[in-house]
Design goal:
The protein is of the alpha/beta class and 365 residues long. It contains 10 helices and 19 strands.
């Protein structure tokens, strides 16, 4: 039996530009430590084989120190390591795949076509390829079929299945089904996918091991798997991220907004980055998003609170008053009825709140 680890899309040297400078620098340091943590995991869990499916760097020209740190960490693994560069960290002149001194246990695929590496002590063959530029419009799996030689054949590629556009290593289902591979280890898709069996080939994307923004939500990590002597593949997802990005929507209708938020929060959030969206109906003053954010900020690694509430319907009823307030509300109510999108209606609600506050000499902050 072979025990393997399948990871991808580390995106080392990502800027984390949405965070304050101190936190962004801390996250970059933590991302460089990812491979060291993986090395410890590999040693502790008896992993034989490590498959890394591209975009380990965020660009083809990362800091040299980042490449050297990754090489040192991979060298600590008591396992064979195979890497297929992707569209962000494509193989080319001056890339870290060419300039860094990679340890003996690490093999980097360098050609823009499938090539094979034998692992005779495991009766195993790894087939992989590299992006040679930021785009790869042709399938690197096209026309490939592993020989029926009694060996376990594994594919390692950066690409997407049935992608909307053929720019990043498109793979077709029929190609995977005809490949004869025991396992196809894939990268590029940052959201983990459940294992998919095409023909007799098991395919999977582990997603990225750390989220970098609110488009990469939830638990992140890698796949740990086994391949039996008969070629059967079993996969287990291993959560490994130090920080998670989460979006929480809280309806505050008829509630005190801060209390509603606190009631909706899970118990442990100190290491997470949260975006809380306040929804429902509120009074003229809104939900007090800024005050909630200030009050709860130290419960999170980072927090932003956004007010997406709408003005309560009974406030619009005051548009019938024979007053400046009524005239103001009638004008905005008519514009609101004519608005075509929810975003336009939200802007009108906000204008109403600030206008009413100005009429009443109140400060909304």
């Amino acid at each position: 039996m072979i025990r393997f680890l399948h990871g991808a899309d580390f995106h080392l040297d990502s800027a984390f530009g949405a965070l304050p400078p101190g936190q962004a620098a801390a996250r970059r340091r933590e991302s460089r430590e990812l491979a060291l943590r993986l090395a410890d995991y590999v040693k502790e869990h008896g992993i034989d084989l490590v498959l890394l499916a591209g975009d380990l760097f965020d660009s083809a020209s990362p800091f040299r120190e980042t490449g050297e740190q990754l090489a040192a960490a991979l060298g600590q693994m008591r396992a064979r390591v195979f890497i297929s560069p992707g569209n962000h960290d494509w193989y080319g002149p001056g890339s870290p795949w060419e300039t860094v001194d990679w340890p003996e246990n690490v093999y980097v695929f360098k050609e823009n076509r499938l090539t094979a590496v034998e692992v005779p002590e495991r009766n195993l063959v790894i087939h992989g390829a590299a992006f040679s530029g930021p785009e790869q419009p042709e399938s690197l799996l096209a026309g490939f079929t592993a020989p029926a030689d009694g060996k376990c054949h594994i594919g390692l590629l950066h690409g997407e299945l049935d992608g909307a556009e053929a720019r990043y290593g498109p793979i077709r289902r029929e190609e995977a089904a005809a490949s004869g591979l025991c396992y196809l280890a894939l990268g590029h898709v940052h959201k983990r996918t459940a294992p998919l069996t095409l023909g007799r080939t098991v395919c999977a994307w582990p997603g990225c091991p750390e989220g970098r923004g609110f488009d990469e939500l939830g638990e992140k990590g890698f796949y740990e798997g086994t391949i039996s002597d008969g070629g059967e593949v079993s996969l287990t997802f291993v959560p490994f991220a130090r920080h998670r990005y989460e979006v929480l929507e809280v309806d505050v209708t008829g509630k005190e907004p801060r209390a509603a938020v606190e009631a909706a929060l899970p118990p442990e959030t100190a290491g997470d980055l949260y975006r809380i969206l306040l929804t429902g109906e509120t009074g003229e003053g809104g939900a007090g998003a800024a005050a909630i954010q200030e009050a709860l900020a130290d419960r999170f690694y980072a927090l932003e609170v956004r007010d997406r509430t709408r003005m309560a319907e009974d406030l619009w009823r005051r548009a019938e008053e024979d007053s400046l307030r009524g005239l103001f509300l009638r004008e905005l109510r008519q514009r609101r009825k004519q608005a075509e999108t929810e975003a336009e209606r939200a802007e009108i609600d906000l204008a109403a709140r600030f206008g009413l506050a100005a009429l009443d000499h109140r400060d909304l902050g």
